[in-house]
C-alpha cells in the first residue's frame, strides 16, 4: 500500500538529516564540503553553508565566515581553499605543496601561518554575511560581527573590481575554471583549448579515489587546470593586466581570462548586501548601491545575448562571447534591478527547451539540454546542482515569479532528501551523482525549508 505523503513528517526528517550532515562535516571552526572528496574549507561552499547554518546556530554560521576571512590575502583576495593542516597531503589534489601560498604568494600578501590556494571563487560572501546577521541581529551586534567582517569584505570586492578587471569593461574576470566554480562547464572548452595541458604523469588526481571517473572532469581537463595554476603560481599570483596574455598560445599564465555572468551577478548581489551592512554600521551605503548599478549596466552591455534570451560568458583573450548556454547565464535573475524585459526573457529561457524547468527537468540543469556537450552525469556539463537551484529560486521570487519559484523549491527539497544530500543529480531523474552528504546541499535545503 502506498504510504500517505505527509509534508510535516517529510520536513522534519529533511531538517534532521540536513542538520546531521552539517554536524558531521563541522571541524570546529568551519565545515568541509564533504569528508572524503573535499576535506578542507572551500570559499563559496562556506558562504552557502553559512546561509543554511544560520538556522541551526547563528554562532557557527558567523564562525564559518570568520574562519574563511582570516585566511584573506593582503591584496584582498579570499582564497578558494583554506587547507586543514591535520589532513594528509595526499588526501586532496592540488595540496598545499602545489600552491606554496606562503612563499609564492608572498608579494600578494598571502598569510604566513595558514596554507591556502592562490585562486578565488565566486563572491557570495557579503550576501551570506548579511543573511547570517539577519538570523540573529542581537548576537551579531554583541560579537561585533558586521564591524569585523565589513573591512575584509570591502577589500575583497576592491580586489575583484580593480585587480581582476582584465577586460577593461568594469566586470571581474576569472583566470581559472576552478575560480568560477563550475569546473568543466562546456563554456570553458574553447578558451581552455589554448592552454597546453601539463603531462598526466606530472600529477596524481586524488578525486578519483572517491568519485566515479565518468562523473568527474577528464584527465585532459586536469592537465589544463594544472598548467594554468602552475603558471599563475610561478608568476607570483600577480594580476597585472599588461602581463596577462603576453605568453601567447600554449602558455598558461594569463592565457585564460573569462567574464562570467554568475560570478559577476554574485558580486553585484554582494555589493548590494555590503551597502546594507554599511547602513547597519551607520554609513549611507549609497555609493555601494550606485556601484552595484554600474556593474549591472556593464553586465548587460558586455554579456547579454538577446537572441538566446540569457547571459553568456565573454572570452577576454579571444575577445568574443562564448556561444554556449550554461546555468551561469540565468543566475543574474538574482539581481533586483534588471529591466523587466530582461527578467521576462530569462524566465522564458528557464522554462524553454534548453533548461525545461517544470516540464521535463526537476531541477535546472547546469548546461543546455540540447547542447552537443550535454551529459546528464558529468559534473558541470549537465547535472543539476543545489546552489544554482537556490540562486534561481531566489531570483524567481525577487521578480514575482511565485509559482515557478514554489515549484523549484519543492523539487529542490525533494531531490535533496531523496538523493541523500547528493553533490549533484541527474536533472531528469533526480538520481544522485558525485558524493553524498554534501554540505551545501544540506545547508541550502535547510534555508529553503525556512
Ligand atoms: C575544485 C568543493 C568544490 C566546489 C566547486 C566544485 C568542486 C573542486 C574539485 O568542489 O571543485 O575547486 O576538486 O573538483 O566544482 O564548485 O566549490 O565543493
From TrEMBL:
InterPro entries found in the cross-reference section: 6-hairpin_glycosidase_sf, 6hp_glycosidase-like_sf, Glycoside_hydrolase_63, MGH1-like_GH
Pfam families xrefs: MGH1-like_GH
Record has Hydrolase as a keyword: yes
Gene Ontology MF annotations: hydrolase activity, acting on glycosyl bonds
Span of domain Mannosylglycerate hydrolase MGH1-like glycoside hydrolase: 38-441
Classification via SUPFAM superfamilies: Six-hairpin glycosidases (SSF48208)
Domain of life: Bacteria
Alphabetically ordered keywords of this record: Glycosidase, Hydrolase
Similarity annotation: Belongs to the glycosyl hydrolase 63 family.
Protein name: Trehalase family glycosidase
Record organism: Streptomyces fuscus
Amino acid at each position: 500500500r502506498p504510504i500517505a505523503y505527509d509534508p510535516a513528517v517529510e520536513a522534519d526528517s529533511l531538517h534532521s538529516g540536513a542538520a546531521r550532515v552539517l554536524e558531521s562535516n563541522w571541524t570546529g571552526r568551519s565545515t568541509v564540503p564533504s569528508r572524503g572528496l573535499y576535506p578542507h574549507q572551500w570559499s563559496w561552499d562556506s558562504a552557502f553553508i553559512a546561509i543554511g547554518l544560520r538556522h541551526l546556530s547563528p554562532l557557527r554560521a558567523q564562525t564559518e565566515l570568520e574562519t574563511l576571512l582570516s585566511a584573506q590575502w593582503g591584496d584582498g583576495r579570499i582564497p578558494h581553499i583554506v587547507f586543514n593542516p591535520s589532513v594528509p597531503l595526499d588526501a586532496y589534489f592540488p595540496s598545499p605543496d602545489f600552491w606554496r601560498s606562503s612563499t609564492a604568494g608572498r608579494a600578494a600578501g598571502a598569510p604566513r601561518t595558514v596554507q591556502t590556494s592562490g585562486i578565488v571563487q565566486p563572491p557570495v560572501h557579503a550576501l551570506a554575511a548579511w543573511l547570517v546577521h539577519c538570523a540573529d541581529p542581537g548576537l551579531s551586534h554583541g560579537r561585533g560581527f558586521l564591524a569585523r567582517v565589513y573591512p575584509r569584505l570591502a577589500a575583497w570586492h576592491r580586489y575583484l573590481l580593480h585587480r581582476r578587471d582584465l577586460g577593461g569593461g568594469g566586470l571581474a574576470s576569472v583566470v581559472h575554471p576552478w575560480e568560477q566554480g563550475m569546473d568543466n562547464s562546456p563554456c570553458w572548452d574553447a578558451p581552455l583549448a589554448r592552454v597546453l595541458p601539463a603531462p598526466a604523469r606530472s600529477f596524481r588526481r586524488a578525486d578519483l579515489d572517491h568519485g566515479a571517473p565518468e562523473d568527474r572532469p577528464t584527465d585532459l581537463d586536469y592537465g589544463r587546470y594544472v598548467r594554468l595554476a602552475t603558471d599563475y603560481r610561478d608568476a607570483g599570483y600577480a594580476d597585472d593586466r599588461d602581463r596577462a596574455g603576453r605568453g601567447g598560445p600554449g602558455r598558461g599564465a594569463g592565457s585564460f581570462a573569462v567574464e562570467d555572468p554568475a560570478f559577476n551577478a554574485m558580486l553585484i548581489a554582494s555589493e548590494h548586501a555590503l551597502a546594507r551592512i554599511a547602513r547597519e554600521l551607520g554609513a549611507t551605503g549609497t555609493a555601494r548601491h550606485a556601484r552595484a548599478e554600474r556593474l549591472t549596466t556593464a553586465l548587460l552591455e558586455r554579456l547579454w545575448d538577446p537572441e538566446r534570451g540569457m547571459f553568456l560568458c565573454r572570452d577576454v583573450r579571444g575577445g568574443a562571447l562564448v556561444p554556449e548556454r550554461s546555468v551561469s547565464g540565468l543566475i543574474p535573475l538574482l539581481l533586483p534591478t534588471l529591466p523587466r524585459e530582461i527578467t521576462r526573457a530569462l524566465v522564458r529561457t528557464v522554462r524553454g527547451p534548453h533548461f525545461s524547468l517544470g516540464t521535463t527537468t526537476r531541477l535546472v540543469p547546469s548546461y543546455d539540454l540540447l547542447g552537443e556537450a550535454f551529459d546528464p552525469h558529468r559534473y558541470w556539463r549537465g547535472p543539476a546542482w543545489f546552489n544554482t537551484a537556490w540562486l534561481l529560486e531566489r531570483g524567481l521570487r525577487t521578480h514575482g515569479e511565485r509559482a515557478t519559484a514554489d515549484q523549484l523549491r519543492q523539487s529542490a527539497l525533494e531531490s535533496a532528501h531523496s538523493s541523500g544530500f547528493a553533490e549533484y543529480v541527474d536533472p531528469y531523474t533526480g538520481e544522485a551523482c558525485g558524493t553524498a552528504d554534501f554540505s551545501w546541499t544540506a545547508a541550502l535545503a535547510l534555508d529553503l525549508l525556512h
